[in-house]
TrEMBL record:
Protein name listed in UniProt: Glutathione S-transferase UstS-like C-terminal domain-containing protein
Annotated ranges, domain Glutathione S-transferase UstS-like C-terminal: 111-245
InterPro entries per the UniProt record, alphabetical: Glutathione-S-Trfase_C_sf, GST_UstS-like_C, Thioredoxin-like_sf
Coiled coil regions in record: none
Taxonomic classification: Eukaryota, Fungi, Dikarya, Basidiomycota, Agaricomycotina
Amino acid sequence: MSQPIITLYDIPSTVPQPWAPSIWRIRFILNYKRLHYRTVWIDFSDVEATLRSINAPPTSYKSDGRPVYSLPVIIDPIRTSPVVLSNANIIADYLELTYPARPVFPDGSRALQSLFVHYIQETFARPLLPILVPLTHQALPERSQAHFRGAGAGPSSVQMTGQQREQAWRAVKEQFDFLASILDKNTGSDGNGVVAMGHDVSYADFALCSVLIWIERVSPHDGWARVRQWNNQRWVRLWEKCRDYMDAL
């Protein structure tokens, strides 16, 4: 029997697509596991209505109990009743369990990788937000820009001077320097110091490289030009390690 085609929902923009880091984490896994999938592009303003229409579970809930719908979302028609999932980490766990070939969680690494990915999302990437969120807003279609502003995430939330921008990039570099010092512990006979698990790429690397892609897609001449030079070009080497899994089958 032919392999079912998974549907991955993503956000369109005017920059080279795709760009969203949380969705890239899933795209990497699909590509790495050599799974067949198609991408459905939906504007920010249509996300909630679209996800409700396919019975996707909410990603979270607001303090008043209202559900929040966000991407990534996948539909896997593997069973008679298709599996519809949201939340990048939940989707990653599902894909690993359902399609165990070419694992992204080597034996015994799931807990530590989960901590690593949480750090990438909640701490490492946070200084990038005031820089990249306004640039991302500018790259969205007009309908999505209006929705982005309504959510308080548009350019009106941050207006930086040149000095403030440099200060923001210094805060970003502090995070990159710290992570480089941790990954350097893998350097030596037992590892190359580029990937989190020492030798082979894993979910942790995909989470980190997804942030690099976001920088490169929305700020190629400023952000990526800076980052690629940092830490002895470590991040370019990680990019190259993940390059084979940036293109779908």
